[in-house]
Every structure is written in C-alpha cells, then in structure tokens.
Automatic annotation (TrEMBL):
PANTHER family: PEROXISOMAL MEMBRANE PROTEIN PEX16
SUPFAM superfamilies, per the entry: Ubiquitin-like (SSF54236)
A family per Pfam: ATG8
GO cellular component: autophagosome membrane; cytoplasmic vesicle; peroxisomal membrane
Topology with respect to the bilayer: Lipid-anchor
Keywords: Autophagy, Cytoplasmic vesicle, Lipoprotein, Membrane, Peroxisome, Peroxisome biogenesis, Vacuole
UniProt source species: Neohortaea acidophila
One of the GO biological process terms: autophagy
Composition-biased stretches (Polar residues): 188-201, 417-437
Compartment list: Cytoplasmic vesicle, Autophagosome membrane; Peroxisome membrane; Vacuole membrane
Name of this protein: Peroxisomal membrane protein PEX16
Ribosomal protein recorded as keyword: no
Lineage start: Eukaryota, Fungi, Dikarya, Ascomycota, Pezizomycotina
Biased composition (Basic and acidic residues): 172-186
Length: 556
C-alpha cells in the first residue's frame, strides 16, 4: 500500500509539472515584456534573409512568419491578463483597447471568436501555399473556405456587439508594461565631462559620488505632460459607446462589407479556372468586388448622414479611425486581380528596372522583384479585410515609394513592442568597442562654410533625405569605399545602411564590418533620421566611420 500511495503522489507531481512550467513561462513574459517584443522582432527579421536562399524558401519563410505571429498572439493574451490588475491605476488607454477589452472581458464567446479570426489571418497565406502544391483547384477551395470562415467570425462578432461596426484588429493591441524604476549603480569612473541634452540643458555628473543630475525639462516636455492628462469626450464615455450601433441601411452596408471577400474569392475561383476565359486577366471578378466594397462605403455614409446628429462631425475618434482605414483599403484594389495583371504589374516592373545598378535604390528594386512572385501567384498576399496580409519577407521601412505602400502583416502594426521606437531608447548606445578619434578628410578638403551651404541646399531640396559622409577608419585594413557622400532616405535603418556599405566595398560575407557615429556603435534597428537628429555636425552633415573587427581600441 505504501508503494501504491507513493506512486500516486509521484503521478500527481508529474501531472502538475506542465502547469507549473506554463506558469513560470507566463511570469517570465509578463516581467520581461520589452525583451519579449525585441525577441519577436528579431525572429521576424530572419525572414529578410530566407527568401531566395534555397528551394521552396517562401514556404519556410512564411512558416516562420506565421509561427512568430501565433506566438505573439499567445504573449498578448498573457500580457492582457497581467495588465488587468493595473488598469485601475492606468489613466489613459487608447479607444480601441478600451472597446475591445470591454467585450473580451464581458463575453468569452467574443474573445474566442476574435482569437480564431486572428489565427486564420496569421496562417491564411501559409495554408494557401500548402494547398497550391495539390493544384489550383484545391488552392481556390481553401481560399474560399478561409474567407467564409473569416466572414462567419465577423458576423458573430457583429451580433455579439449588438450590430456595431467591426474593428481591426478585434483584440486589444499590446501595450507597454510599466516597469518599476530601480536604482542604477554607476560603475564608470568619475568624470567631470558635461553632457548636453537636445534642448541645451545640462546633465551634470558629480565628481565625488558619480551621481548624475537630470536635465531640466523643456517647455515642450511640460506641455506634452499636461496634454496627456487632459480628458476628451471619448475618455469619459463608456466603452461600448465608442462605436454606435447600426441598423437598416447601415447594417446592410456592414454585412456587404463582411461578405465582399467571400464573393470576390468565389468569383476569382470561378473565372480564373475557366478554360475559355481570360483567367486572372478577366475584369469581371475585379469589377464585382470593388463595386460591392464601394457600394457598402457609400451606403454607410448615407446612413451616417441621415441617422446620426451632425453627420460625420458626430463620429467618435474610434469611428473616424476605422472609417479612414477602410478608405485607404480601397487603394489596395490596384494590387488585386486583373487590374494588377493589366496595369500595376507592368508599372512596377518598369520602375524596378529603372532602379537597377543604382546605389541604395537597387535595394528597392530587388525588394519589388522578391514580392512580384507572391503578388502573382497567391491570393492572400494582397486580399483581406483588416490590414493586408504580408508575404513572408516583411517590408523594411526604406521600401516606401511615392504612390506605393507595401502590405504589412497585422501583427507588425498592432504590436508596438515589436517595433523600434526612437523615443523609447537612445539613438546610440555606448559599447565597449571604440575607435580612435580621427579627423575627417572631407572636412580637411572642404571649408566649413562650403560644407554648411551644401548641406542646407540638400535638406531644402530633398526633405526626406539625409546628407551623410562615410569614411574608413585610418588604421583599418578593410577596403576603402569609392564614394564618401550619400543622400540616405530618412526611413532607412542603420542595418540597411551597413548593407549598402558592405555592397559598395564588396566585402565577403565571412568578414565583419562596424560603423561608428561619434565613436559610438548605433543600434541596427534605429532609423537614420533619429541618428541624424542626435549626432549631426555643425555643418549639417552626419559623419559616419567604418572599420573591420581588428581596429577596436582598448576599452575605457
């Protein structure tokens, strides 16, 4: 009996282990929310290098992308539970989070349905890729089935919210966790140097205690703080009053908007597989789909003007944001169906060819060519509601072109912690590796007034470009770049600029390269615009030096 009792106790301990591990994982996620967001962003960035590297790379890349999105969704649920206890102290939430969190806590059915909708959106492109292996007929069946499942979920959500318009995404967006401030111990030796903040106020380090006195706040900081405490009309409304109920024409318009993807997918499936038809170049599915969406928008506007006091002026902030998002979504019809095949595709191909063999710009051309395969062969790469699903290789910030906005996965725009926020961290971080102070040859060869005039002329003519001077560290044995002066897009990241330098000097993949701004290694995720604003020279240029791994000086 003693042995049987011992075995039963041991079994109970073993059964409880998975629950214990899950609780430990949950605690780790909630206590390290910022680090979790950075890890998720790093995993997504791996998809940059996968496409085209090996056979069927798009399937592997999209599998990685979908896995990261599902993991992020699970992390969101953990963080939402952790934030539930601190929401009473949190004075301000976005209207979207207030509304969606209200229904998630009030209705378990809403939460499960919204989660299912998000899961389908995160995996739809991967499922389409897998179905394509079994033929076009199977692929279109899967596409129509997935669109029907999403439409059913949206209709259920509309019913649970008492006929209120849909929001995208239907779940609360991730919010930064408030971390308790801890006393910092300064290990660096006392210094009498003075650091100047952006506003010009001093940050002084006391020589004896090594404690740092923070700079005085500027008037802008005070104004921003006061404005953050101001309550608007939407802040005092109950959550469900942030979206008004629709009925009659407005309800019919919302149902049309929900069913449009199913109708369009079914029409594409029918006409693209007909032997006697024009297949993807047939205009009938495209005209049918855009007509339904445009008609739904016009009916919603008509209902708004006739039933709502004040018309569009009576909309809440949340309603205005959703209406604006749906308006921009109409532009995506330029990337769908026959309009893409007959019009947009040729324009993009011609534009990509013009960018070939041009510094920096050829990166955009290569990116367009990578996306072209996905736009041509997969329906879900451009067609969905609530943020167009991104193909597996995510678009870097530098890929924004006039008149063209690349698709982004919903998770990229809905998770603030997974993206770089220049205001949340310094543009450059002091690290152990450093280079010896060097004199810029460009400064020696050109007088200050000439450099300043040239920088001002560049900034006035190209407001979205940054004048950068890139030079090699003198003692480095790395190749010398053939061009010092660059006009860098403001939304280019440091990592992408490093890629440009590697390509210019034709550096082999096994060799490392480091770039420095004021003897500091900038973070690769930082935007060049933030680096420029913090470290630009008096003459208006941003001076960057590069070197190999053998030129680091001794750490101070």
């Amino acid at each position: 009996m003693e042995q049987l009792k011992h075995a039963a106790d041991h079994t109970k301990v073993v059964v409880r282990l998975p629950e214990k591990w899950l609780n430990m994982y949950s605690d780790f996620i909630t206590k390290n929310a910022g680090a979790v967001g950075q890890v998720e962003g790093a995993l997504r960035s791996i998809a940059y290098i996968i496409p085209g590297r090996f056979r069927e790379s798009e399937l592997a890349s999209e599998s990685l992308n979908s896995s990261v999105q599902l993991l992020s969704l699970y992390h969101d649920s953990l963080l939402t539970r952790a934030l539930a206890h601190s929401l009473q102290q949190k004075q301000h939430q976005s209207p979207h989070n207030r509304y969606t969190r209200y229904y998630c806590s009030r209705s378990p059915t809403y939460r499960r349905t919204a989660t299912m909708l998000q899961v389908v959106q995160y995996t739809e492109l991967l499922l389409e890729m897998m179905a394509k292996r079994r033929g076009e007929k199977t692929r279109w069946r899967v596409v129509v089935l997935l669109e029907a499942i999403k439409a059913l979920c949206r209709l259920v959500l509309m019913r649970l919210t008492n006929s209120r318009p849909l929001l995208s995404p239907p779940l609360p967006e991730r919010e930064p966790m408030e971390e308790k401030a801890e006393e910092e111990t300064i290990h660096s030796p006392p210094s009498e140097t003075t650091t100047f903040s952006e506003a010009g106020s001093e940050q002084w380090t006391m020589p004896r205690t090594s404690l740092t006195l923070p700079p005085l706040p500027t008037s802008n900081d005070i104004s921003s703080y006061l404005m953050s405490k101001v309550l608007t009309a939407d802040d005092i409304k109950p959550p469900k009053a942030l979206l008004h109920r629709v009925s009659g024409i407005g309800e019919a318009a919302e149902i049309m908007y929900i069913l449009r993807p199913v109708i369009y997918a079914a029409a594409m499936s029918y006409w693209s597989q007909r032997d006697e038809g024009k297949r993807k170049a047939d205009w009938r599915p495209w005209l049918l789909g855009i007509s339904i969406e445009y008609a739904a928008r016009q009916l919603a506007k008509k209902d708004l003007e006739s039933r709502r006091p004040g018309g569009a002026r009576g909309l809440t902030q949340l309603e205005k944001e959703e209406l604006k998002r749906r308006g921009w979504a109409l532009s995506w019809w330029a990337m769908r169906g026959t309009f893409y095949e007959n019009v947009t595709k040729g324009m993009i191909q011609g534009f990509a060819k013009k960018l070939q063999n041009k510094p920096l710009l050829d990166m955009v051309g290569n990116l367009l060519q990578d996306y072209e395969y996905l736009w041509d062969d997969f329906y879900f790469s451009t067609s969905t509601i609530g943020g167009v699903a991104v193909p597996s290789c995510p678009t870097p910030p530098s890929a924004s072109l006039p008149g063209i906005t690349f698709p982004r996965h919903p998770a990229f725009t809905n998770h603030p912690l997974s993206t770089y926020n220049p205001s949340s961290q310094p543009a450059c971080t002091r690290t152990t590796p450093s280079t010896n102070k060097m004199r810029s040859k460009f400064k020696d060869e050109h007088p200050f007034e000439k450099r300043k005039a040239e920088a001002e002329r560049i900034r006035s003519k190209y407001s979205d470009r940054i004048p950068v001077i890139c030079e090699k560290v003198e003692k480095s044995d790395i190749a010398t770049i053939d061009k010092k002066k660059y006009l860098v897009p403001a939304d280019l990241t440091v990592g992408q600029f490093v890629y440009v330098i590697r390509k210019r000097i034709k550096l082999s993949p096994e060799k490392a390269i480091f770039i420095f701004v004021d003897e500091v290694l900038p973070p690769t995720a930082a935007l060049m615009s933030s680096i420029y604003e913090e470290h630009k020279d008096e003459d208006g240029f941003l001076y960057i030096t590069y070197s190999g791994e053998n030129t680091f000086g001794e750490s101070s």
